[in-house]
Amino acid sequence: MSFSYDPTGATPTDRVRMLLGDTDGSAPDLQNEEIGFYCTLAGATADGPMGALFRAALLSATALVGRYASVVDFTATTHGTPNFKVGDRYTHYQSIVGSMQNLIARSPLVPYAGGISLADKQQQTTDTDRTPPFFTRTSGTYPGTADPSTTTGSLSPPQATTPI
Hints:
Order of helices and strands: HHHEEHH
Strand order of the largest sheet: 1-2
Number of helices: 5
Mean pLDDT: 82
Low-confidence stretches: none
Largest sheet: 2 strands, antiparallel
Structural class: mainly alpha
Helix content: 40-55%
Number of strands: 2
């Protein structure tokens, strides 16, 4: 397992380390491979959206909260009774989890409505990895039935005629 950190944030791993504050090579809390795993889960890439990096940092911080949850600081009081409290690393990463959740909640989500523009429609139809649509314009037409687009006349019932 390895550690690397570039303060310019050249890779997603560097950016997640920066968000976590895990930049000390002599005592890293996560290895590059662990951060890389969380970046893959979150879809974080070097040129991708910041929301994915926030999600990778959230996953990393959550893992560290779980790791340090059982680590406690012990101090003896003046009366001889022991005093236990959660560790500083646990508190640090717990606060980062909250911060990342807030950042993710505020990161812009851009909805996508496909097929609105002609260029978008043409791109979707030429995509070889796209699954075919379940419904099409010819859905509901069966052999031996009339094509509703070529049927003439009215759909209202015939009018009654008056006898002469």
